[in-house]
Amino acid sequence: MTVRHSTCALDCPDACSVLVTIDGSGKAVKLRGNPDHPVTRGFLCGKVARYLDREYHTDRLLYPLRRTGRKGEGGFERITWDEALDAIAAKLTNIANEHGSESILPYSYAGTMGYLQGSSMDRRFFHRLGASRLDRTICSGAGIAGMVLAIGSRYCVEPEQVKHAKLIIAWGANILATNVHLWPFIVEARRNGARFYTIDPVRTKTATLADKHFFINPGSDLALILSMMHVILEEKLEDRDYIERYTTGIEALRAKVREYPPERAAALTGIPAQEIASLAREYASTRPSLIRPNYGLQRSERGGIASAAVSMLPALTGAWRDVGGGMLYSTSGAFHLDRAALERPDLQNASLGRPGRLVNMSNVGRALTDLADPPVKAFVVHSSNPAAVVPDQDRVLRGLAREDLFTVVLEQFQTDTANYADFVLPATTFLEHDDLYFAYGHHHLQLARKAVEPPGECRPNTEVFRALAQRMGFTEPCFADSADDMMRQALASGHAFLDGITLERLDAEHSVRLNMSPAGTPFLPHAEGFPALGGKMDFHAGKLDYQPPAESRLGDGTLRASYPLELVTPKHSEGMNSTFGNREIADRETATAYINSADAAPRGITNGDLVRVFNARGSLRLRAEVNGMVHAGVVSVPACRWPKSSPDQRNVNVLISDRLTDIGGSPAFYNCLVQVERCGD
Ligand SMILES: Nc1nc2c(c(=O)[nH]1)N[C@H]1C(S)=C(S)[C@@H](COP(=O)(O)OP(=O)(O)OC[C@H]3O[C@@H](n4cnc5c(=O)[nH]c(N)nc54)[C@H](O)[C@@H]3O)O[C@H]1N2
Ligand SMILES: Nc1nc2c(c(=O)[nH]1)N[C@H]1C(S)=C(S)[C@@H](COP(=O)(O)OP(=O)(O)OC[C@H]3O[C@@H](n4cnc5c(=O)[nH]c(N)nc54)[C@H](O)[C@@H]3O)O[C@H]1N2
Ligand code: SF4
Ligand SMILES: [Mo]
Q1: Is 3.40.50.740 the CATH classification of the domain at 65-139+347-513?
Q2: Does the CB atom of residue 412 touch ligand 2 within 6 A?
Q3: Is the distance from CB of 516 to CB of 499 less than 8 angstroms?
Q4: What per-residue string of b and e applies to 189-210 under the rule 16 or more CB within 10 Å gives b?
Q5: Cβ(490)–Cβ(338) below 8 Å
Q6: CB-count burial class (<10 Å; 0-12, 13-18, 19+) for 658
Q7: Residues 636, 157: Cα–Cα separation, whole Å
């Protein structure tokens, strides 16, 4: 038995350091969390502790496939790599010649978070080809746009410092499901007297373990934040010295938040006025205080500005000054690797002579059905499952079903998206290729070498795009770069945070903390202001107006008359978006509709009943669970089931509109009005 180091590549803030036990035949027999990693601390989440069942699953795609049946049906035949690559290269060349290179649309997201397999050779290939570019908004576009608007960067505090906090607010953050490695730090803080609160329309397991849980109406966070600011300023609880030194626009903010007394915010958020006032007081008078927003906060119409506003709270109270205080949203901005060297946007000069057309991935249904000049004629997908994860699912599937659309999908499993492909190419897992990993929940850069041999004929994404580039006659030397070449290029950005972090050091140590602050001293990114903004942040009072989302209990009256319930579709502990959709336990969880007894009773719904959840966009049959998980007026259906596992061949995204957030161009996933009825057995 030998033990090799790896890194979990799933789209999770924790980016765990994984120890892989390999037997004499080269087979992985066990995965465990690296006890020496400062954030992983010796454990993995349940879904990845069992990852080897996925790794060695009999349904793994092992050979290139060509479609034989109708699109979506899933009929395929095995072919060789040469046949597949020749045919794909010839077809892409023809399409580019006939319709223009921008009729080719790449589609990828964070199936793997590795720099190389996620965004390197593929980007080079599509840039050189002159394809349309994909605006990758589906997850955090609104939150990042909001955070950057407010504080100028994506610099947040270290999870390792959370143990020093005295008040921790998990805001739209289901820590025990989506970010479990933060939990031990919170436990430590609580042992030292910290209070832990959650703000969430769902009483998640994280919420049941909190000292206080605030049930909030979906999408109303901005109203709560503005009202907290109101109380803090009215009661003079702000840190005047911090505000004076490091902010602008406080007087305009003061005038603006006068419009949001707790009584008004109570009507908008569903949280009683006195609770809003005491939360504000407690937040402003406890030090250190930490807000942990996660992306649940920003999946609504006002989610971008809500993220900006929540990022302003620690400036109002001076919480950024304290070790363990401030905000822990995304940490990814601290990883200053050279993305341009990896992705080579300059290669567009050789094709288009300008940046390619930008297409928002969140509206891909529209792109595939409506876009003109040129229409999308080829769709090349890797590390994502758009048939399952994108809103307005009927339109997405209609687009994918177009007989004149040429679709290629690089996948590990036969997903719904793969069912619509002309060619399916078998992909390696993170255990089977080399990669470099950032994290969005900590500050440790990691290198993971291949731990096991790929099964069958699986290939890394990088190798597929390298081979396609060769067949298309792209002779630029960058297409010959090895994985190590690319890692070295990415590390050579010259940024001070990467000083002394070489490939050799990463090979020896596997995980290295960025040099955001000297080793042993905490990173206090905004203790002395906001360097990315030239020193001071502005409160942007002119942008801080709250309107209830159109699809909410206070939204469009006509819609509400037919569809009175607010649907949220959050993550659950057994899933990773749609990645584990073929596991029974994930399928069961995503086939459940959680509903409050106040809404169930008048509809004659009891626990375990089959119900129909529907609106004008679609309809789904699910099992009702009537418990205290959601408050009245809210229905929660965890995401994302494999549509093909459902009797309706659809998942919740069939119900959700492709309306975008105020800024950042993300889907307003968690603003969706539905009706629910009992539908017999
Ligand atoms: N187990 C597991 N882990 C995951 C994932 C997974 O699918 N499963 N997905 C990964 C990915 S891609 C991401 S982006 C992260 C996301 O991690 P999180 O942001 O923590 O996950 P979400 O479930 O999107 O949202 C968190 C909470 O926000 C709540 N929420 C919904 N609407 C609102 C609202 O309007 N206001 C407030 N305050 N709260 C709201 C939801 O009920 C949910 O409990 O998790 C990652 N980790
Ligand atoms: N209703 C609803 N919809 C949602 C969300 C929600 O909360 N509710 N969450 C949204 C969010 S936050 C996100 S991030 C998106 C996520 O959407 P996606 O990024 O599409 O994520 P997954 O559904 O996990 O699909 C990733 C796929 O990549 C494949 N894969 C993994 N590694 C590799 C690799 O190395 N190579 C290749 N070729 N393939 C690989 C996996 O097998 C899997 O099928 O979903 C969004 N959709
Ligand atoms: S907690 Fe996140 S990073 Fe860690 S093993 Fe699970 S999915 Fe991977
Ligand atoms: Mo995400």
Answers
A1: yes
A2: yes
A3: no
A4: bbeeebbbbbbbbbbbebbebb
A5: yes
A6: buried
A7: 31
Reading the block at residue 191, the tokens are 């042992």
Model confidence over 313-326: pLDDT tens digits?
Answer: 999 999 999 999 99
Mean pLDDT within 263-280: 98
What is the DSSP annotation of 659-671? PBPSSS--B-TT-
620 and 676 Cβ atoms separated by less than 8 Å:
no
Please check whether residue 433 is in contact with residue 97, taking contact to mean a CB–CB distance below 8 angstroms.
Answer: no
| Length of the chain counted residue by residue | 681
**Ligand 1 in reach of 571 Cβ (< 6 A):** yes
For 170, phi and psi rounded to 5 degrees?
-90, 110
CATH 3.30.450.40 assigned to 141-329: no
* Ligand 1 atom with the shortest distance to the CA of 110: 12
Q: Is 330 in the pocket of ligand 1 (CB under 6 A)?
A: no
Residue to probe by mutation, ligand 2, list 54, 109, 307, most atoms within 8 Å of CB: 109
Q: Binning pLDDT at 50, 70 and 90, where does residue 680 land? A: confident
The one-letter amino acid at 564: P
pLDDT tens across 105-116, in order?
999 999 999 999
Smallest CA separation from ligand 1 atom 9, residue: 576
Fold of the domain built from segment(s) 557-680: Barwin-like endoglucanases (2.40.40)
HSE, CB side, 13 Å, CA atoms: give it for residue 230: 21
Structural fold of domain 2-55:
Phosphorylase Kinase; domain 1 (3.30.200)
- Domain borders along the chain are 2-55, 65-139+347-513, 141-329, 557-680
Gap from CA of 10 to ligand 2 centroid (Å): 9
pLDDT in tens, 188-206: 999 999 999 999 999 999 9
Contact status, residue 144 vs residue 331, Cβ threshold 8 Å:
no
Strand-pair category, 423-426 with 406-411:
parallel
How far is it, in rounded angstroms, from Cα 451 to Cα 6? 7
Instruction: Put the strands of the sheet holding 28-33 in their side by side order.
Output: 2-7, 17-22, 28-33
Lookup: tokens for 231: 């109380």
